[in-house]
Amino acid sequence: MLIGVQNVFASAEKALEYAYRTEYDKAFSEIAKIPEEDSSACVIRGMALFSRFDDFGDTLDLINALSVLEKCKASNFWEPLRRYEVALVSDRKSNTFSFKGIIEARSAAQMFAERKDDDSKAFYAVYAYYAPFNKANLEDLKKGFEQSKTFSPIFGSSLIWIFDREKRYAEALDLTNKMLMRYPEHPVLLQTRAEMLFKTGKKEEAIELFKQSEQIYAKRAPNSIRYWCAVAHLAKMTGDSFWKDKLKSKEYRAIKRWMPDIK
User: Fold this and answer.
1) Beta carbons within 8 Å of 125's beta carbon, 6+ residues apart
2) What percent of the chain has pLDDT over 90?
């Protein structure tokens, strides 16, 4: 029985690693090896769909991720993680903090707070940081990034945006560079790096990296959210009419409601 449990967790870990590497077909093939009755199967599937949405911007992946996660019957560690992911997907679907997202995040946090494993402590720290009535222990989140075999990229990304929120841009850039050492071609991380380069005063480097990103997504996923994120950043950073005029197109207007707020 123990060997079976270990094999299931190994498959879940491998599936997420493929998703982090943007090898989504391999991720879903690995998920298919997990018995459907195992709690991790549907949670990991929802996470992989959400990761693919974040990359390619196909809103059907977002809708399917929420459907999978809401129908999922999980237990033990996977149940608070399921609720945590429902909160993330719900907020992204509405492009703002949603009532459903707040309820699910709070419920997940309460369950994580009762657990003693390091991954649970790191997930709780993410929630606690954004909840003013709780005290976030960012050391738990840093430890999760440094030591978690399964969720290190999730904890790293959370830390980057916490540093960004606190205007600790040099630390955010350093952390992004560390993550790119593990995933050197990750297109979402490259956009994050470009943004942090700009915020640390390296404007020309940031512009060149966003131009590369625009070309990557023009081939990878034209007219996707990530493509237009690159264009919007270039319009802001350069002030060039070439990029600004693209934001007047019908293609951009069609996707604008899904766009994050670019400051």
Assistant:
1) 136, 137, 138, 140, 141, 144
2) 79
- What pLDDT, on a 0 to 100 scale, did the predictor assign at position 3? 33
pTM here is 0.92
Question: Distance (Å, rounded) from C-alpha 194 to C-alpha 51?
Answer: 20
| For range 139-165, the mean pLDDT | 96
How many CB atoms within 10 Å of residue 97?
A: 13
Look at residue 8 in the predicted model and tell me its pLDDT: 55
Tally of residues, the chain: 263
